[in-house]
Amino acid sequence: MTGTTLTPAVGAPLSRIEGREKVTGEARYAYEQPIEGVAYAVAVTSTVATGEITRIDASRALALRGVLAVISHENAPRLAEVGDGELMLFQSPKVAYRGQIVAGVVAESLQTAQEAAAAVALDYDAAPHDVELRPGHPRFYKPEKVNPSFPTDVAHGDLDAGLAAADVVVDATYTTQPIHNNPMEPHASLALWEDGGLTLYDAIQGTWRAHNDIAELFELDPERVRVISHHVGGGFGSKGTPRPQAVLAAIAARIVERPVKIALTRRQLFSMVGYRTPTIQRMRLGAARDGRLRAIGHDAFEQTSTIREFAEQTTIATRHMYAAPDRLTTHRLVALDVPTPSWMRAPGECPGMFALESAMDELAVACEIDPIELRIANEPAEDPEKGIPFSSRSLVACLREGAERFGWTGRDPTPGARRDGRWLVGTGVAASTYPTYRSPSQATARIDADGGFTVQIAAADIGTGARTALTQIAADALGVDAERVRMEIGDSRFGQAALAGGSMGTASWGSAVVKACKALLDQGEGEVIADTAKEVKALSKLSRHAFGAQFVEVRVDTASGEVRLPRVLGVFGVGRVINPKTARSQFIGGMTMGISMALHEESVMDREFGDYLNHDLAQYHVPVSADIQEIDAAWVEEHDDELNPMGSKGIGEIGIVGTAAAVANAVFHATGTRVRDLPIRLDRLVS
Amino acid sequence: MKAFAYERAADAAGAAAAGAHGATYLAGGTNLVDLMKLGVETPDRLVDVAGLPHDAIEELSGGGLRIGAAVSNADLALHPVVRERYPVLSQALLAGASGQLRNLATVGGNLLQRTRCSYFQDVTKPCNKRRPGSGCPAREGEHHNLAILGQSEHCVATHPSDMAVALTALGATVHVHGKGAVPMPGLHRLPGEHPERDTNLAPGDLITAIELPSPDAAAVRSAYRKVRERASYSFAIVSVAAAVSLRDGVIDECRIALGGVAHVPWRATEAEAALKGAAASEQSFTAAAGAELAHAQPLRDNAYKVPLTRNVLVSLLSELCA
Amino acid sequence: MAEIALRINGEEHRLEIDVRTTLLDLLRENLGLTGAKKGCDHGQCGACTVLLDGRRANACLALAVAHDGAEIVTVEGLAAGDDLHPLQAAFVEHDAFQCGYCTPGQLCSAAGMLAEAEAEGVTLDAAEIRERMSGNLCRCGAYPNIVAAIADVAS
Predict the structure, then answer these.
(1) What is the side-by-side strand order in the sheet with A545-557?
(2) Which of C55, C106, C129 to mutate to test the interface with B (most CBs of B within 10 A)?
(3) Which of A675, B195, B238, C138 could disulfide-link B191, Cβ–Cβ 3.0 to 4.6 Å?
């Protein structure tokens, strides 16, 4: 079975396995399943930010021909309390934020369902709302832990003493904006009840977790719930766990006794499916004149909702980035009358590293040291938080490799000194990091009658290339060509598996796939189910992280303040790269989202009415093709045996971490204006 | 979307008669269908005017150009005469929307697009333009990208069209069935006490064509500059259309219109007056911009548009006169 | 309700539709042609782009009843049997998509855009492709690969 001339699949630039399906339009996403007799659901959302529904008048909606049901707290089934208030649809007349689902309409056609949804009349007893994260908010509190289970505050030494003893101090406050994930595929679900069991086609990043959550909510044996997600049109964290539309579809399908599907509108994606919390971050860095850090302080202030606590881990990257004897990192939260923030690509690291890496740039300026050399001077020998070794750490290599490729050497640090016609030109750098996690997963491998192999795992390919990478991993474990492997994913029937999140998908699933395939080879026939729970538990105590660096060139129009990015480069140390083609896409995609955070995206809170008011893709700007010019990603050689059988680190999130700081640092270099509040809108640069 | 009756207009007279009885005209639909989905527009009756024979671009004997109202934005932008003799118009069209929207959208529809103010587009919130008398939350709320010139206490919306800004700088005339020729500016109106009225058209008035005057030296030397929050496919924060001709380093003819700053495509008459006969220098450009913007009444969060407009106007004039 | 006739991917269809039906909903819900995607339903993302009478257009803003008699090509109609359209093949080769949800719109838009550029006699460099493809959002950030794939076919 192991051919001697076989080229390993891992490391090869294989094109996506499902590429043909996706370019021909055959790939079907959750909403697109061809299910007979499906009815259409549309969500009705609250128009007050807080208060109670006092009356629901569904008569006009029900009078429309083709309307099957109007569902609200007055007639919906009771759900089990699951601790996620966002999922407790129709359980009370209370409203926790503007845009929360308060009713659902089911009809024979989409047009009728939409018309009926607009015809449902609701009255509210509205209460005053508080929707604004602001410095010094009287209701800030210290959460017990931050997402998912990090300590809220961590102190080493004495920050104040360290700052007092420092030659140079940077003390600055940075703010980051609320950002909505906005995957291209709106959150969608299709629910089908059969013999008391539920099948849910769902736009979800993890079918296993979802099937458990849904079973709990509907008080079903998990065996009776099946969640399927063959193709998912992006998620970036917002499809990590079931969202309200899945609950609405399931309730509606039960009530009308027919399959029901729903896709949220783009506007509805701005309320009920999570977003990146805005942050206020105070950074204090104290250093000797030579740039060596003496003290690092990072205090983060964030928001959550009143129905679920989400405490983003904004300062955790600061805990292991640079060495310094005196350090303090803290998180404070305020529960506002807003939708619950949630995971958005690199929650914590992404906004946190904007502050840290901007402050490092300010420190480099203050100490008159090259920003790359400043980072190298503060490279820690071991994880500064835990005092344990890194399994591998290539930050310095990435900085040096990037400097070489980008042409950093000889950079004049003077701000505002380079002009090309009406443009000011500058360059910036920032470091990047993301933890390397792994979580228990199960995989099944079997030999097929045709001599091929089928491998099943409840992985999700949300655009990461997981299906392709896992095929390559399985092929090498089996010692066969990739064409002989059939990789089946996206079905909770395949057993426990990690989410496509936390950049841990490929590491977690790949480990299980390798184990199942190897066991199958040993067994020589039939089918093997493997589980990695034991290995994951037995991992040695090491600090496991990926590192990288982004380099950016900006041009700023002196008349308009418009910023353009002619060149962007990221260099990463991520262990073994499974598929260079899809990996490059992931890095570039992450950096593109970082550029977007730096320059474009911003959900604007409407203080008077309490919702995010620019709730569509014309007012909420994500970059278009014209915004992304030359952009590339590279990686340094990094060998790490302490990770997983593949020796790989996750790559889905590291691209976004640091990028916004690199842009802001470049804007400072170009213009002399330090923008500490994202996004860097042109009005902040126009004079 | 609310139910409606759909019919195709047989001719302009029939369409106008239906319009006078409350029907809404449908052409490319890129703005109307959007607003119908949002519940902002709730017509009972749609009259499709896209099929009327207003789809030609004709060169007039006097040297002007007559553009049918149903001509697509894409076709107008690429018409060789437009590109050569009215470059500001071609540039403005290409700076608007996307390739696929320009294929659907018509010239008449482009002129009549509604504001993109967030409050106007959300039927769950007050808006004097959508529901007269309900209030304007934008004044105290979010108005980062709203008007700095000519607004009223009832409305601070801006007109979203790029094309209309270029047409204003070119001194175009709009032909309206049953009403005759309406010069631009003059089609659109400031909000005053009736922000629900975007234009001076009455129900039943149907735009059939736009006429461009014979291209003078200024039209031929014209350009459009649009500032927005991303590099493409986004509405203007500020835009400038300028047509200038020079004689011995002195500005001879000069027409300027501003977009993104007012309820109408804003003809910058004060700047024009200051420039005519002035030396083509950065100093005169700055003085002219200052004269125009002296009347600006920015709101709490859009004062940046004043220096932005000035800078962009100066920058564009400098390039045109270089 | 209204009765209309459309030619879609070379096939004649006679349909009885609710006049409120957009071309996009007609394709996806009435005909099961789910290649064209609904990303925003308001002409702000381009995922629904199809070729309408040979030109790229946002199917979400086109009322089907207003396009009676039209010829439509969707992503399902780009390939010639089993042979992928050169753009489709280039997209796979250049990894010009990740999640794939914007892809059908990107492909139809690119097909329309190539025809437009040819008609105008424009040579497509990267900057020109970027500007002309800016009506198709890609949240995964596959833009440089999309541009490379299109440039490959254009040359």
Answers:
(1) A419-420, A423-435, A545-557, A563-573, A630-635
(2) C55
(3) B195
Query: Given CA atoms B45, B51, B57, B58 in this order, what sign does their dihedral have?
Result: negative
Rounded Cα–Cα distance for residues C19 and B44 (Å)? 12
Predicted local distance difference test score (pLDDT) of residue B178: 84
Tell me whether A118 touches chain C (CB under 8 Å). no
Q: What's the token pair of residue B27? A: 């052409």
DSSP B203-247: TT-EEEEEEEPPP-HHHHTEEEEEE-SSSSSS--SEEEEEEEEEE
Burial of residue C25, with CB atoms counted within 10 A of its CB: 0-12 exposed, 13-18 middle, 19 or more buried: buried
Rg (C-alpha) for chain C, rounded Å, is 15
Token pair of B248 as six digits: 């011995």
Q: Assess contact for A46 and A102: CB atoms under 8 A.
A: yes
Distance (Å, rounded) from C-alpha A669 to C-alpha A428?
7
Q: Is residue A7 very low, low, confident or very high in pLDDT (cuts 50, 70, 90)? A: confident
Residues in chain C: 155
Cα distance between residue B4 and residue A8, in whole Å: 62
Q: Of A653, A114, A678, nearest to A437 (Cα)? A: A653
Q: Residues near B138 by Cβ (< 8 Å), separated by ≥ 6?
A: B117, B118, B119, B146, B156, B157
The whole-number pLDDT of residue A5 equals 65
* Residues paired with C73 in a beta bridge: C51
CB atoms within 10 A of CB A422: 15
Residues of C in contact with A629 (CB under 8 A): 126-127, 130
Question: Which value, to the nearest 10 degrees, does the dihedral of the CA atoms of residues A60, A64, A67, A71 take?
Answer: 0
Polymer length of chain B = 322
Contact criterion met (CB < 8 Å) for B2 and A118: yes
User: Rounded to an integer, what distance in angstroms lies between the CA atom of residue A186 and that of residue C28?
Assistant: 15
B82, exposed or middle or buried, with CB in 10 Å at 0-12, 13-18, 19+? buried
Q: Does C95 touch chain A if contact means CB atoms closer than 8 Å?
A: yes
- Helical segments of A327-384, H only: 349-367, 371-377
Which chain C residues contact residue B233 at CB under 8 A? 134-135
Radius of gyration of chain A (CA): 26
B/e letters for B127-136, b = 16+ CB within 10 Å, e = fewer, are: bbbbeeeeeb
Nearby residues of C71 by Cβ (< 8 Å), 6 or more positions away:
C6, C7, C52, C53, C54
**pLDDT 10s digits, A136-153:** 999 999 999 999 999 999
Q: Which two tokens stand for residue A610?
A: 């309490």
Q: Does C56 contact chain A (CB < 8 Å)?
A: no
The reply to whether the predicted model has a pTM over 0.95 is yes
Extract the tokens encoding A301: 């202030």
A195: tokens are 């013999």
Residue A555 forms contact with B (CB below 8 Å): no
* Token pair 């027919």 in the structure block, residue: A258
A559 touches chain B (CB under 8 A): yes
Q: β-strands A260-263, A279-287: how paired? A: unpaired
Q: Is A653 a catalytic residue?
A: yes
Predicted confidence (pLDDT) at residue A1 exceeds the cutoff of 60: no
Chains meeting C at 3+ CB pairs closer than 8 A? A, B
Scanning the structure block, which residue is given the tokens 């990221």?
A570
Residues 6+ away with beta carbon under 8 Å from A37: A258, A259
Whether residue A362 contacts residue A669, with contact meaning beta carbons closer than 8 Å, is answered with no
Are A272 and A100 in contact, with CB atoms under 8 Å apart?
yes
The tokens describing A34, both together, are 């061809």
CB-based contacts of A154, cutoff 8 Å, min separation 6: A319, A327, A328, A329, A385
